[in-house]
Amino acid sequence: MKRARDYRGRFVSPSNHLQHGHCCKGNWSPTFISFVAAKQRCRDPRVNRWKHYGGAGVQFLWKSFPQFLAAMGTRPKGRTLGRVNDSGNYGPGLGNAWMTDKQQKAARFAKHGGRYNGRTA
């Protein structure tokens, strides 16, 4: 059996691929990509946006992808994982939702009192 690698080229356990079917044969589903990206933003200081997430105290509290999938469901087309009011942690029951880019920008502006990156809402 050929061993699968993640996007960094590290070997990953084949048993993880068989549990949920969202990362089979190197083809990760949008849902699994969102899970991995959020986890890395919160836990890996080498990731580009870590300072805005893990570096700012945002925690990733889901223990596994199956737990995440049960709580969030499959990612709808045109949406990404967001935090309601752009605050708090990522985890079960913590106000996470599949949001459009427009919804996430509105939450970001609301969090910053109507201003973000020098712009007004």
Through-space gap between termini: 53 Å
Biggest sheet strand line-up: 1-2
| SS summary, helix count | 4
Q: Would you tell me the overall average pLDDT?
A: 80
Number of domains: 1
* SSE pattern: HEEHHEEHEE
Describe it:
There is one protein chain. The chain is α+β, with helices and mostly antiparallel strands and 121 residues long. It has one domain. It is built from four helices and six strands, in the order H-E-E-H-H-E-E-H-E-E. It has helices at residues 14-20, 30-43, 65-72, 101-111, and strands at residues 23-24, 27-28, 80-83, 96-99, 115-116, 119-120. The strands form three sheets. A two-stranded antiparallel ribbon has the order 1-2. A two-stranded antiparallel ribbon has the order 3-4. Strands 5-6 form a two-stranded antiparallel ribbon. A hairpin with a 2-residue loop joins strand 5 (115-116) and strand 6. The radius of gyration is 16 Å and the shape is globular. The mean pLDDT is 80.
